[in-house]
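For reproducibility, we list the full input for the guanosine-5'-monophosphate complex.
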Amino acid sequence: MIAGPGLVFVVSGPSGAGKDTLVEALVERMPRLRYSISATTREPRAGERDGEHYFFLTREEFERRLAARELLETREYGGNLYGTPRDYIERSVAEGDDVILKPEVNGALAVKAAYSDAVLIFVVPDRFSHLRERLLARRTETNEEIAGRLEIGHREMTFVRKFDYLVVNEQNRQEEAVRDLQAILHAERFRIHRYTDDSIEKVQSS
Ligand code: 5GP
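The corresponding predicted structure, in tokenized form, follows.
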């Protein structure tokens, strides 16, 4: 493998589609893949830790970082602010590691605007009705919040054609979705435009 800068992978899709578990599994299996932790003003859920699941910030601190241009993109979702730290992605890519993040769709498109080479992957459940079931089962949102998330999810689906890949996370077949994602990440490395002319010439002249 010819070394080059790292790649940026963005996984998006409606809330409840299972992005968190899929991305966690990917990062565990792929040694050169780093997870970009987002900043948020939402309250941590039970079991969520600061600096691991999110950087949990006050609104003031979030706005300070935004004003200091430390966030690549930000979005309000369900009354809370979410944003992607700029620095970590820049550093990972420069060091040759791939980076993966999972913002909602507008965030995904904003990342693509900043990194035209970023690979956008949309994750959906096999049935939309599963979203409600999953959100109800995890008991982290009120009924009102769940209704809001489903509505946003329907709206997010209208952006699906702006993505590069679509992966279906079938109920009880998560392993398959992880493997599909792994295949995408793996193949992306070998796209011809990822190789610099220099790196190809080096092979020829050696
Ligand atoms: P949750 O509250 O379930 O953790 O996240 C709510 C939504 O915010 C999800 O759709 C998630 O993908 C999105 N999100 C998380 N981090 C970011 C971020 O840094 N930027 C944007 N635009 N969305 C984010």
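The mean pLDDT is 94. Residues 8-191 form a domain with the Rossmann fold fold (CATH 3.40.50.300). Both points were considered when choosing residues for closer inspection.
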